Amino acid sequence: MATCDVCGKQENLPYRCRHCGGTYCGDHRLPEAHDCPGLQNWGDPGGVFDSGFDDSVNEQGRVAKARQRVASTGGPLSYFRGNVAYLFLGIILVTFVAEQLVLATLGYDAFIAIFVLSSNHLTYVWTWVTSVFSHSPNGFFHIFGNGIVLFFFGPLVERYVGSKTFAALFLVSGIAAGLAQVGLGLALGDPTAVLGASGAIMAILGVLTVLNPDLKVYLYFFIPIPIWVLTFGYAALSVAGVFSVDLFGGGVAHFAHLIGLVIGLAYGEYARRQGVRATSQVQFGGGPGGPGRGRGPF
Q1: Taking the domains of the chain in order of start, what are their residue ranges?
Q2: How far is Cα of residue 283 from the mean position of the Cα atoms in its chain?
Q3: How many CA atoms lie within 13 A of 262 on its CB side?
Q4: CATH code of the region 82-273
Q5: How is 149-208 classified by DSSP, letter by letter?
């Protein structure tokens, strides 16, 4: 059986919304019953009362119709609606390739100026954003670790809070975490440079920990643990790393991880009080027992 994304009811014959891709019971099958994001794109307010005598009204109607074709449920932007987590993952991968190209053609100084948030050039405001999507060019462990969490848990948080809110959460937490790490370095008189989505990833885990603390995940693909253990295990390592660099080695932005986690926990608590409800399982595609059944194998 599948689970309704709104009320959690078990359904032998679930309804799959063709606009948002969610799974619902009979009571919540209609778009207006599950607050479907596609509702806001139905109809064309621009030009409804166009009588044809006013050129400005005609022009507004044409613009509105063009915008409707692009942003409607069948338009090009519909591919990104509900898939912001995957979009960000794609940007991370493209950025990783761009890093290699810049290093090979323009050199290390250009790489730092474009992709790295550094206390030495804090006024390079574009790096506040690019550093969130950049990862260490010297190996795959950094990008793989963040990428796998974003792939499995990002869409779940996006479904809980909506695509726009998820995008804002990811960017704000990632930028704030990077700036906090650089700020700590400046306060300690230690020049700092950071890159990576780890702060935003910790925010995602923080939201899930509040909304669904008992969500089962598989550590190393076969050890089942609740997600709160995974989250606070990371937090403990980061706290220890902040106070004992020799124990965990340098090159890890532990303070940025903690800032991202705090932002995620705070927003998760806010969302919980606003009535955001978490489902009891991670759903990806088909599987045994009904459509979309499965668990994240992190």
Answers
A1: 1-40, 82-273
A2: 16
A3: 11
A4: 1.20.1540.10
A5: HHHHHHHHHHHHH-HHHHHHHHHHHHHHHHHHHHHHHHHTT---EE-SSHHHHHHHHHHH
Which pLDDT tens digits describe the chain residue by residue (298 residues)? 677 877 877 777 777 787 777 888 878 788 777 777 766 655 544 444 444 444 544 555 565 555 555 454 545 555 556 789 999 999 999 999 999 999 999 999 999 999 999 999 999 999 999 999 999 888 888 899 899 999 989 999 999 999 999 999 999 999 999 999 999 889 888 888 999 999 999 999 999 999 988 888 777 667 778 888 888 887 777 776 666 654 444 567 788 889 999 999 999 999 999 888 766 554 443 333 333 333 343 3
Structurally, what CATH architecture does the domain formed by 1-40 represent? Irregular (4.10)
Which pTM value belongs to this model?
0.68
Rounded alpha-carbon distances, angstroms, from residue 254 to 127, 195, 243: 19, 12, 9
Q: Is the dihedral of CA 10, 14, 19, 22 positive or negative?
A: positive
Nearest to 162 by CA among 22, 10, 11, 8: 22
